[in-house]
Amino acid sequence: MQTMVVSGYRSFELGVFQEKDPKIKVIKKVLKTTIQQYIEEGLEWILIGGNLGVEVWAGQVVVELQKEYPELKLGIIFPFEEFGNNWNETNQQVLTELKTQANYVNAVSHYPYQHPGQLKNHSHFLLTHAGGLILVYDDEYPGKTQFLLKEAQGYAIENAFIIHQVTMDDLQNTFFEDAKCKIY
């Protein structure tokens, strides 16, 4: 598998509102370990949609991993043009910095947000241009990512597609003591 999508909870869904929140360290550690496993199996590209939370943190992890694995590439594929323009200045700055470090940046729709169909088209595009999905998401704690998971599960029925789901228990069991924080 050469390309994987990474997605998961938005930062607000996890109650993360500051860059120094220890939950971010835990999630980044899990993402780093997971991505490294796939790199060893031939992973070359990580695609994200640019959402604040797991997707941005995954992008930051990829940038960090590129020092050790220069063959690893980061693609940011936004659902629509002007994505993130309504965020506060700090969040826009984080996204801008990540965009400058990415190997590829584009949008599925070349129009600003107009309708929910743009989001569905975005999910479909990401799934059909990857061999798998790393998803930080737990069915017991619903969030916006449930829509991507359901679409990925349907897609995986008819296609060779891996869904690597990281649950809250996975995060808690592996890193609770190390991070001294509760994930949810």
Structure description:
The structure is a single chain. The chain has 184 residues and is an alpha/beta fold. It is built from six helices and six strands. The protein has helices at 22-40, 54-65, 89-101, 117-128, 146-158, 168-179, and strands at residues 3-8, 45-48, 73-80, 104-109, 132-136, 162-166. The chain has a six-stranded parallel β-sheet, sandwiched between helices. Strand 2, helix 2 and strand 3 form a beta-alpha-beta unit. It is globular and about 40 Å long.
Comma- or semicolon-separated keywords:
184 residues, alpha/beta, six-stranded parallel beta sheet, 6 helices
Spell the H/E element sequence: EHEHEHEHEHEH
List the strand order in the largest sheet: 4-3-2-1-5-6
Helix count equals 6
User: What is the SS-derived class?
Assistant: alpha/beta
Layout of helices and strands, plus pairs?
Blueprint: E1 3-8, H1 22-40, E2 45-48, H2 54-65, E3 73-80, H3 89-101, E4 104-109, H4 117-128, E5 132-136, H5 146-158, E6 162-166, H6 168-179
Parallel strand pairs: 1-2, 1-5, 2-3, 3-4, 5-6
Helix pairs in contact: 1-2, 1-6, 2-3, 4-5
